[in-house]
Amino acid sequence: MIDALTPRSRSRRARGVPRVALDSEAILAAYRRWAGIYDAAFGLVSRAARRRAVASVNRLPGRRVLEVGVGTGLALPHYAAEKRVTGIDLSADMLARARRRVDTQSLTTVEALAEMDAEAMVFPDQSFDIAVAMFVASVVPHPRRLLGEMRRVVRPGGSLLFINHFAAEAGPRWWIEWALAPASRALGWHPDFAMDALLPPEDCAQAVIREAPPAGLFTLVQLSR
């Protein structure tokens, strides 16, 4: 624990390397536990940020939307009527709830929901106009593979969006995130997830980055393809 507070470990974390690695098995186990209570436990705190991300998608040109990590489908009712949405998720338990949501709310914007690894999608290149990942980047084992796959399946001129919690640079929140990091496998996400774990410097330089509610806890990142 003492080593975790040394300048060397701070430097490593600042380069975007979370303290605890995640893998598909840990993620699936975590979201099997979360599935039944996810909407109640996380839906409220993330609602405003999620709706801001969907509003951004709705303003963008193009109809074909890929939602990566669709989860229980909390965002699905909020897409504009002209959008055609495909959602993917690694967790069958979460997808089962998303499918129920689509059926009970008769969501005609949703074209497909599929169980799929976001780091190895089966879609052909340039299949979508927009790809959006909500609260996913800090969950996947290899965030830059996620970025690469999203870029691959979006057409040139399209858009990539992320809404996510990114770790603070310093201050009390930094210490809380650092203290929670060893629980990453149980939580199913990285509390100490830094933006540069997702975005290389060249993407950070050209991305549109905005704080999202509540109180800047989340961040909306938009990239042009």
Could you walk me through the main structural features you see in this protein, from its secondary elements to its overall organization?
With 225 residues, this protein is of the alpha/beta class. It has one domain (3-224): Rossmann fold, CATH 3.40.50.150. It is 38% helix and 21% strand. It is built from 8 helices and 7 strands, in the order αααββαββαβαααββ. A 7-stranded mixed sheet has the order 3-2-1-4-5-7-6. The longest helix is centred in the first third of the chain and has 22 residues, at 38-59. The chain starts with 6 loop residues before the first helix and ends with a strand.
Q: CATH topology, which one? A: Rossmann fold
Strand content: 15-25%
H and E string:
HHHEEHEEHEHHHEE
CATH homologous superfamily designation? Vaccinia Virus protein VP39
Oligomer: single chain
Based on CA atoms alone, the radius of gyration comes out at 17 Å
Q: How many strands?
A: 7
CATH class: Alpha Beta
Task: Give the overall form.
Answer: globular
The major sheet is characterized as:
7 strands, mixed
What's the arrangement of strands in the largest beta sheet? 3-2-1-4-5-7-6
How many separate domains make up the residues? 1
The CATH architecture comes to 3-Layer(aba) Sandwich
Average pLDDT confidence is: 82
- Low-confidence segments: 1-15, 179-188
Helix content: 25-40%
Structural class: alpha/beta
Q: Give the distance, in angstroms, between the N- and C-terminal Cα atoms.
A: 42 Å
